[in-house]
């Protein structure tokens, strides 16, 4: 009957049924056992023990009774007594899991944790599968400091029975030891969800909230615990003092503490918890007092010593703190938190090796705890042991792959190893976690900044801003990243925001100024650079950028002052020297600029801009060789730099190295190669090297873009002119002048090219326009004179040459042209000095010697003329005309014999030269060599039979040989050919007179005297002819006129001729 009631859990009825059975059979061991079992079910374990002992009294081999006796003894705390009982059970039945489990529980209660674990493991091995055994095992591991094993045991218990609040409570306790307070709270919440009346769970969660500083949650949890166990004075005091501490009610705190003392309720746990609460309220002095009292009550409590050390650490009493942690470790060498404390104190004292050793101990004690690995990594980083640090962080990440702190710190260590890409990946892992803080993106930003990836740095900083405030130092890096990215508007806004948050800062004002400078807000930039210098007078970057800004504002002297400030502070700042030089260039102080640039390059010869500017300065100073060397250095640094190639080509052109310039221009690539100035320079270089077709192609291409550019038309004209296309060149210059009508050089060139195109009148007109505004331009006067000379306007030409000679000195060509034009305009006397002036400089010009001779000849200076012509002949001995003129001058100067050889040379080369024969006839006649003279005349007349001069010469020969009839016949032909020739008329009259044709002679003489009334010879012949003709009165008048003129001395010779003629005429032929 009892068993039936027992199965139905009707324990009272079962008890009375079994008691009734014992009344009937008092020595029945099984009934005693069943009675004990019912009592145990009713948790009347002491009564049950009596029943079990009676069962064993009547049956010592009743194994169930022995087992249940041991269990009940355990339940009433009779652990020592239970152990032998349970030992007999497992000795007799080693596969009894209940025996092993409860004996293990007894060992656990007696703090024999290793023995407990051994029995619990045996229980599990023999099939104990309830959660309780794993909870006991977890507790044992925790007490032995084997927290990870404890964590595993509790986790397994929860898997077996997820509704066991004790398993969750044990798990929470283990997590607290592992410093995983948040997870511990989560476990406690689950325990309380299962059992809301679990007072211990409420107390623990309250302590944890207090420990974490969440005082309101802690107070709420304590209130829940007190509702369940209002008699728990420790909890009540803790609750009350916490509220009083929060309200800073010192008197209440003191009253409560006094009450605890007076009521004898002081405990180590209370003061320890009180101290922890004060720690979280940052009342470290009060916390220290609480821990001191706890240690007075329990000096051997390792945890309290640890907390005591933590309070001292917070107060920065590091030596005392270290002693407390060491005392904690003496009491419990496996006190994980004490090792952490020693590491923290050592770190604070910069004893990083000692700290690393402490953290290493901590990781050995609890290798699955994340934070010690991170702290070890931080310490190794401080020691410079970056690889060891990374290994520690990676160990932490093995345990918690999403741990943002570990990823972040790992990134820092990698960055210190210069493994920036790997560091970035680490920071990205940290930043992408839900619980990430701004630091990860900030570190990502700083690493990107160090890599020069400023755009990514900016993005990362802005992501950090979304997660929380940015520290001042990080703001500065952010501003610099924006500046490097030239995000100038963002820089300005960010700088203004910084100043709002933190106030003015020299570096920020400087960056604000730089952004405004780049936006060309120069006045604003200048203001902020100066404001920065007010805050930091040694902020030399601000001096430098102030100088740059002043350059842009054309305040060059002030800019130089700023650069000098930088140079005085840092003489090796080549950039300051460079911009100093730029300011000097702007002031046209090129010599100083060149010196400064050379100094800059002596500091750093790799600055391309300095070499380039130096070349430009030297080029401007016409130091072309130095400039070419400097631009060569620039091109070594930047071989394809178009600007450098352009200036090199210009320098080469300046020194006449046009072929080199062409080669340089050919190296310039697009788009600069299509630049108008480059094409123009290239075309000029091609022109100067005779590559006219290529030059013409480029100029034509440029004109298609800009047809109103006078310089292009000018170059086109020069190319055409070089090819002899003067008319086309003149047309091109006409176009050039259309677009630059006041350009004197273009007008001058147009005039010159018009002259070359043989458009002399137009050339004269253009040159005249230029000379009206530039009357002292000797070269243009000369060109105008040449145009007049080409038009044979020699007098105008000579006037222009005279004007040119006022401004152009010692120009032999000008002197020559002036002499020639004067001569050709008939101004022989004026031409002679100019010709002589020219011959002093150029004595081997036969043409001028000849012209000088002609001029002298025309002036009647025959001897000087022959001397000049003699020089011409020496230089041009084969010129027959020159030889002839030379002979003429000798003839005129009376050097008749000297003239004959020259004439013979002429006639040898030109036997048909009638004039030479004629002159020779005259000379031979003058020398009385009639036969030679007659031969010469005959040769001359053979060439020109009707030449009056030659006929006259023949007449003279006949006359001298007394052949008067033939002479008369021939003289009439002369008069027919040259009726105005007075010499012929006089000779005709003489022949008529000699041959006694008196009336005809008188008539001929009348004509002669009409032209020359003072001719005494003609008056005598007329008087004699009139007298012989019987015209005596007229003869008398003529004689008187003859006598008035002094008579005619040659009349005797004539009378002798006439008498001889008449005698021969009257003598009959024999």
UniProtKB/TrEMBL annotation:
Keyword Repeat tagged: yes
Matches recorded under SMART domains: TPR
Residue span, Cytochrome c-type biogenesis protein H TPR domain: 187-302, 837-947
Pfam families: TPR_1, TPR_11, TPR_16, TPR_19, TPR_8, TPR_CcmH_CycH
InterPro entries to which the protein is assigned, alphabetical: TPR-like_helical_dom_sf, TPR_CcmH_CycH, TPR_rpt, Ycf3/AcsC/BcsC/TPR_MFPF
Record keyword Lyase present: no
Name assigned to this protein: Cytochrome c-type biogenesis protein H TPR domain-containing protein
Organism, as annotated: Methanospirillum stamsii
